[in-house]
Amino acid sequence: MIWKIAWGSVVRHGRRSLLIILVVAISVAVMLFVTGMLDGMRHDFFQTMVSSGGHIQVDHPGGADALDPYSLELLIEDWQDARDWFAAQPETVRAEPILTFGAMVLMEGSTVPMVGRGVEPETGFFTDVREGITEGRFLSDEAVGGSTTGSNALPEILLSTETAEMLDVSVNDTVSVLVEDSSGAPYYLAYTVVGLFRSNSPEFDQSAFLIAHRAAQELLYLEDRTRQVRVVLQDETDAEAVAARFAGGGTGGRAADPDEPAGTAQPDSSALSSEELRVRTWREIIGGLAVLLEMFDVMMYAVNLLILIVAATVITNAILMNVFEKIQEFGMMRAIGLTRKGQFGLVMAEGSSYGVIGSLLGVAIGVPLVIWFSEHGIYFGEMMDSFGLSREVTTRFDLIRTVVNTLFGTAVAVVGSLYAGLVAVRMSVIESIRGSA
Amino acid sequence: MALITLQNVTKDYPLGKTTIHALRGIDLSISEGEFAAIAGPSGCGKTTLLNIVGCIDHPTTGSVRLRNRELHALSDTEEAGLRLREIGFIFQSFNLIPVLTVEENVAFPAVLAGTPKPERREMTKHLLEAVGISEYAHHRPDELSGGQRQRVAVARALVNHPSLVIADEPTANLDSETGDRIVDLMRTLNTRDRVTFLFSTHNPEILKYAGRTIRLRDGLIENEAGGAP
C-alpha cells in the first residue's frame, strides 16, 4: 500500500512528476551522449596514434637524444629478428618496419621539404591514409618499381592532396625525391604518384609522403637497415609486459600455445643486443599525450558530476515542493499511526519511482542518439585539428557505461528525495498537520 | 474506570514576542465508554486539548495519562504506536488519502498495524457496512460527498479497535442533516460497541447527542454537564 500511495502521488501530481522525470531523463541522456562522445574522441585519438605509431616501437637507442630524428646514423640492423620475435608473440596483431627519413620532393622547380615514410605496401599502419585516399590507390606490390623486377616501372609514391596542390601534380604524374643517402651524397629518384590522400591529421598531410619500405632503403642506400619496428598488440595493456619480455631476452612467443607442436623453433630475442635497440611502449612514445587521454577520463567524470549536481538540485527542489504540498497529508497519516520511518519510506518510494522511470526514459532517448551518432558522426570542423582529433567525432556505445549512468540517474533522484524526506520527517505531527514548521 | 486523565495541563504557543496561552490548567478525566463533547467558542482551546489527548501534541506543563500510562514519557515511535492502536482520529476536513479507494483508506491503519490481510479485509467490510457506505468501497474519496467521506473517516478511526476516538469538529464541513447523521452514527457505535468518543463542536444541535459536555473558555474548563455513563 505504501508503494500504491507513492505511485498514486506520482500520477496525481502529473505535471510536476513529468518535470522531475524529464529532468532525470535528460540528465541520463546527456550523460550517455556526452560520455559516449568523449569516449569516441578518446578512442579516435588513441586509434590515430596507434594506427601510425603502434603499441611498441623498437629503434636505435641514440634516438632519445638525437638532434636530427631522421639521421641515418640512427638505424637498426637486426630489425627482421626483432619483427619476427614480436610476430611470434600471442599478443601481437602485427609487427612491421617503418623507415622515416628527411627528403625534398621536387616537381618542375617546386621543392617541398617533407618526411618520407617507407612502409610495407600491405602495411596495417596508416589506416587513415589508406582509408583517406581521395584519388588513385594505395601502394601496391609493385611499389618498389622496376629496379628489382628489371622493368622500367618507376617506384610508387603517395602524396597528400595538400602536397599535390602545392606541387601542382596529380595521379600518374612523376615527382622526384631528393635525399642525402647513407654515404652522405645527395641522391634522387623519380616516383610515380599512384594516389592522393587526406588523413585525419592535417599536420601529417602537410609533411608526409609514403613509399614502399624497400624503395626507401634503395633511395637511402641502406641495404637492410630500417628506422623502427612498430608493433600492434591485441590489447594495449599488454604493451609493458611484452616489451619487458623482449628487453629481457625471453623466448616467449607462441610456444606457450598447447596446440603448437613441441620443439617448434621460436625466435629468441636474446640474440638481439639490447644495447643496440631501444624498446618503448605507447605510454613512452606518446609521452605527454598520454596525459591528454587521462584528461578525457577526467573530463568525462567532471561532465557527469556537473550534470548530476544540476539534476540533483532541480530534483531535490521539485521533490521538496511535492513533499511540502502534501505535508498535511503526511501529518494526518502520522496522526493515525504512520511512523517517521514510514513517512520517510513513502518519500523515498516516490523519489525512487521518479528515478527509475526517468532513467529508463533517459536510456530510451540517449542510447539511440549515441548509436546514431556512432554511425553518422558529429562534424566539429577545423577546431579539432589543434587537439590532434578528427574533425568528425563518432560517439561510442558502451553497455556498462549505460548501466552505470542509469544507476546514477536513479541515485540522483533517490538522493534528492533523501533530503526532502529528512526535512519532512523532522517536522512534528502537529507541525505537519498545520503545514508549517 | 478513567481511560484518560489530564492534570493541570497547560499549552503555550510563542507568537513573536508574546505567548498565547491556549490551555491554562486543565484537569479532566474521561472514562471508558463515554460520549463526551468539548464545546466552546472558536479559539477557546478545543482543538489544542484534543491534540494533546490524542498524543499528536505535547502539553507545556501538566500530565496526560492514558490507562495510567504517562504520555510524555513515550518515545516518538511509542507515540506513533499508541496513536495507531489506542486512538482513532476523525478530522474536520476528513483527511482521507486521495489516491486510495474507500476500502483502502479504511484499511490503511490496519496495514500499518500489521493486521493479517484476511482479518483486515473482514474488519474493513464490517465497518463499511456499519457506517453505511459499503457500495462505495472501490470509489476514491473525490467521488464521494462530504457526509460519505466523513463516514469513511469514522470507519477508518475504528479499524484498529481503539480505546478512544477523537473527533475534531466532525460536522463542521457538513450540512446540518448530514452532520446529525454522522453524530448519530458515532453515538450508535458508542452505545452498541462501547467505543469511547471525545469530540469537539461549537454546534449546539450536536451537543444534544453528548452524554457529557465540557465547556471551555479561554483555555479553562468553564463548566461540565452530564457525566460518565
Which shape of chain A, going by the Cα principal axes? elongated
Average pLDDT confidence of chain A is: 83
First-residue to last-residue Cα separation of chain A = 27 Å
Percent helix of chain A, as a range, is 40-55%
Q: Main beta sheet of chain A, described?
A: 6 strands, mixed, barrel
What summary fits the major beta sheet of chain B? 6 strands, mixed
- Tell me the strand percentage band of chain A: 15-25%
Question: Numbering strands along the chain, what is their spatial order in the largest sheet of chain A?
Answer: 2-3-8-5-7-6
Radius of gyration of chain A: 31 Å
Strand-residue proportion of chain B: 25-35%
Name the poorly predicted regions of chain A. Answer: 251-265
In short:
The complex is a heterodimer of chains A (437) and B (229). Chain A is α+β, with helices and mostly antiparallel strands and 437 residues long.
Describe this structure in words.
The complex is a heterodimer of chains A (437) and B (229). Chain A has 437 residues and is α+β, with helices and mostly antiparallel strands. Helices cover 51% and strands 18% of the residues of chain A. Chain A has 15 helices and twelve strands. In chain A, a hairpin with a 2-residue loop joins strand 2 (92-107) and strand 3. In chain A, helix 2 (14-53) runs antiparallel to helix 14 and helix 11 (288-325) packs parallel to helix 14 (399-426). The longest helix of chain A has 40 residues, at 14-53. With 229 residues, chain B is of the alpha/beta class. Chain B has helices at residues 46-53, 76-85, 102-113, 117-130, 146-158, 176-193, 204-207, and strands spanning 2-15, 18-31, 35-39, 61-66, 69-70, 87-90, 164-168, 196-201, 212-217, 220-226. Chain B has a six-stranded mixed β-sheet. Chain B has a four-stranded antiparallel β-sheet with strand order 2-1-4-5, with helices on one face. In chain B, helix 4 crosses helix 5 (146-158). Chain B starts with a strand and ends with a strand. Chain A binds chain B through residues 1, 4-5, 7-9, 11-12, 328-329, 332-342, 428-430, 433, and chain B through 51, 54, 56-57, 76-77, 80-81, 83-85, 88-89, 91, 95, 97-100, 104, 107-109, 111-113, 156-157, 160.
